Every structure is written in C-alpha cells, then in structure tokens.
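Q: Entry one of two.
A:
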Amino acid sequence: MIPFYRFINMQKHGIIAYDLDYHNQIEISFIGCEATVERIDWNRHSIDMKDRFEITEFSINVYTRQVNHIVAYLDRITVYERIQKDDITIMNQMNSFTVAQIIEFISMAQEAGAVNVTAALLEYRNNTYPDYNVMDEFVQD
C-alpha cells in the first residue's frame, strides 16, 4: 500500500500520476513499465494525500536507467511504509540497499517506534557490516 503523495510530482523520475474526472479517476503510470495500480481508499470527488494505492502487477517493457530508478524508488517506498507498520518482512530486501540506506531505515524505525524492525535492522547492520563505524563519516580536516 503506497500513499498518493509518493506518486505526485515525480514526472522527472518517470512516475506519472493523472487526476481525472474531479478525483474520481486517478491513473498512475511508470515510463518504460506496464503496471496495474488499484486505488484502495476511495471517496467520490476527493483525494487525500494519504489515500493508498496498490501495485498489483508490474513488468518492465524496456530496461533503462530510468526504469532501474523507478524500481529502486518503489522498493524504497515499500520499505518506508512497512517500517511504519513494524513489518519485519522488509528484511528480505535488505541485501539490495547500502549501509547508508539501512542506517536511514534504522532512524525511521526508531522515530516510528517500530521496535521489531529496529531490532532486526540493527542486527542486520551489525552482522553484514561489522567494521562499520558511524563516527568514520565525521572526519576533521
């Protein structure tokens, strides 16, 4: 489930959201991809930025750099939404993220009070990047 605000104003990233018929018909498409996007939250003639959409089918027509960017963005926002729900199924995707992104996820999980996800992410970071030290990024010249 992805909220509407994650799709709007993303044309430069290859994601296009059309608002047709006074909010009765919202179409979301991805350049270079075929997708079926279903609107979960629906009220006649209104849309809230938090209204949820679900991508039920997704395929790639032509593999380009932009398509790669779209897929990476969808993966990342899926993780964001699952962190908010304290859903540890995100751990299946962690091998496709950098240590910096994992640290961002840890911060988000802590802010959201997602105890299970925070613990799982910390364990993953410690096991996968045992030599990583957060303070290494702060170097005084």
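Q: Entry two of two.
A:
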Amino acid sequence: MIRKNPNLYEINTRVWIKRFAKGNENFSIADVPREYWLSLKSKGIDAVWLMGIWRTNEETIKKYCFEEGLTREYSKALKDWKEEDIIGSPYAIDSYKINPKLGSEQDLLKVKSTLNELGMNLILDFIPNHFSAASRLLKEKPEIFLTVEKRFYEEDPYTFFKPFEEEEKYFAHGRDPFFPAWQDTAQVNYYSEEARNFMISQLLQITKFADGVRCDMAMLPMNNVFGNTWGSALSDNSFTKPKEEFWKTAIEIVKNYRTDFLFIAEAYWDLEYDLQQLGFDYTYDKKLLDRLIAGDVDEIRAHLNAEESYRKKSVRFIENHDEQRAISSMGKKKSEAAAIITSTIEGLHLYYDGQFEGKKIKLPVQLGREPDEGTIECVAEFYNNLLDITNDDIFHDGFWFMRYPQPAGENDFTYKNLLAWSWRRLDEKRLIVVNFSNVQSRCRLQLELGEYPSSFKLWDLLNKTQYVRSTKEVEELGLYIELAPFAGHIFTY
C-alpha cells in the first residue's frame, strides 16, 4: 500500500531501457539492475509508471508516423533522427500483451515483484478509447469497435477507414472531439455492451501485472462525451446511451476483485471532479500546471485552496511525456519554484524521467532514441535535496493547511507574490513559503507558537540555513520573510 500524497515516477520505457541494454537485443526490463530501483526508492518514489509497455503494430509506422507535423517534432527533438528511430505510438496498441522487445510476461511479473519488495507499486497504461488501426482485435473482436456504413467512410476517409481489402467493413479511428482523428487507432464503441465487458476483462487481466493503471484520456468513454463525439455514427447504428457510466461499473468490478488497485485518470475539460466521483483515485491537475506557467499567484493560491477531497485526489506535475520539459516552459529558477510547490502540497506528485537531471527536450512518443543531454548538476542537487526533505512522513501523513501572507510594510504590495502553507504531524511542523514572481518580495506570516520560549530557531531545510527569531515579535507582527525571485523556504521549527 503506497503512502498518502504519494510520489509517482514516469518512465518512457522503450527509450529508457536502451540506456541499460547498450545494444543487447536480448536485454529485458527484468535485467534492469536492482540498484536502479533502489535509487528511486531512496528518493521517496512510491510507484513507477512504465509508460509504453504494451505490444504495438510495427506495420502502422510507415503509414501513419511520417506526417509533416510529426517529422517536424522529431527534428526538433533529435536532429540526426533516422527512419529506423521511429517506433510508433505507445498509445496505439495491438493488445494488452507486453511488447516482446521489452521482455516476457514473466519479466514483467519479476519487475513488479522487485518493486513490491522494495515497497513500491507498478503502474501501467490503460488506453480505454482505442486500439491500433492494425490491431488483431479488429478481426478477433470486431464487435467492440465503432463500425459505420460505407457512406461515412466515403464522406470522411480521414476519420473512418476500411482495414481489410477483402471485407466491406468500415471502422472509426479513435479521436478527441476537439482534434482530427488519430489515424493509427481504431475507436472502441462505449455504447456497446460487448465493448464495455471486453475492456473490463482487460483491466482485470492487467491487475495480475500491475498495482494500478494510468488511464489515457479518461474523459473520452464518458457517456455524454462519447455521445457528443460520435452522435451521427451511433444513431445510424441505433446505439443508445448506456444507463451507467463505464468507469463506475469498471472501477467497482476491479476494486471488488482487488481493493488496492489504483486508478489514475489523465483528465481535462473540467471533468476531473466527475471522474473522481466515478471512482478514480487520482485525476490529472493540468490546470495547476497552466497556472504555474502563466504565473498568476492569485489564481494559483485559489486553485490550491480547492475542496480537500479534490486536492487529495489531484495529480500534481510540472512535466510529463505530453508536456514541454519544465526548464523549457518556465526556465530553471521558475521551474524549481514550481517543483517546490507541486512537491509540498496534497495529492499525487508525478515526476518524469529526466526531470531530476534537468532535461530540456520533449521527446515525441513515436521516437525510439533520445538525445544525449547530460545532467545539469545544480538541478540534480536541487531535486536530491527537495526529495529528501519531502520524503519525511509529515508530508504524507500530516495535516496540510494554507497560510496567507500579510504586508511587511506600508505600501509594500510584494506580499501578494508569496505563497505559503504548512504541514503538521504530532509535534512536528513544516512551513513552506515560495516567491513565485520575478521580483524581490516580502511578507509577514502569523504562526501559532504556543509554549515556545522567548526566542526560537527556524531551520531552513531547503537552503540549509538557521534563523533565530523573537517569539513575541512573531506573535505580534508575524514572521518576517524576504525572498529573492522564484526562491523558497521549507522551515522546520
């Protein structure tokens, strides 16, 4: 059982494994040294997400993975990329079988066993919306896909496709309603009972190999979203909206089978709360990332002050495989300040492989080779220190509450740039203050000092500095804080 407010580490598995394999084609995920997993455990990682573990269809690569937009992204990430470096999307899967290039089922079970033994969980992908456009399931289980009449294909051959020359069968590509269809995918039909039952069976199968799933674009199977996306195709086939939401049924069945199995939703469009109500343990908090990038402190403060149950079920992150690297989107100092924020609030804290080393390049998921960026040592030192601090039980079992900076002087409005909150656990206290602006800022903070002596010490764990303050002054005026741009304190006192 992972801790409250856990830390999740995402790995781009098909690229990452090459660092260890060094050209050995027989190398499997089970051969990754135990020391590597121990190093993650020592940083306070509670769960590892092996992104891109499932079998894909290589025959779709040439057909779908060399569009102009994609090749432009490949060149931006890896200037000397070659055709053989393109390995296809890990989100257009053939089936829920481990990719043979990564190992066998036994290898996957061995990794899970190692992680569990070290006190960590294994998270794998669940891609509810679609399979590969070349998936074997199109022949084996055609009834689970969204099929249409020929006229749909003739009117819109980008969204609909005919996978078999010998058969007059037409299917929909998977899609997000706000974007063109993903042509390397085939859409699952969530208005079909057969499809729902099949997808639940796949989830039950995954429980053998993992301790939880990160559910890709989890909003798409929701009844209203699915109906609005595929309205005419559904009505043409007389499909009607199911009475129950897929996720409510699926999560209840899986958790009845295994109560500790985690469901993590990639979620957008203000549907995070709805997905939490349907049973998700955690939902993406993309809105916080957007607000951190924009830098509006009032909006960030209001966001962090959301209802408690929502806060605790939010996935906090400043980068992942879909987002720009934090140093690139925010710069070094601002991204470090953002990391202090996302690492010391309630919820699940998601870190992406390469974040701790200061990587700057966002790698398209279709690319199978990464550039050699090296490590920015000062960034690595920052994260080692931050993760050591937040590994303490107080950040997982403690009580979190917001604090509100007050002016430090007349006509000094820089206090508005400061964010502050506390953790309390038994007699332990932590006070976090971050200047999330590009100007020197000051404030006063009220603290509850109770039976403290006439003077007391504050130890800044982040900057390894000690301060001595008058208890009377702090009680009467508040603790004086002055911080450089995008700097922070994590005090114990």
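A: Comment on entry two: The chain has two domains: 7-139+183-393, 399-492. The mean pLDDT is 97.
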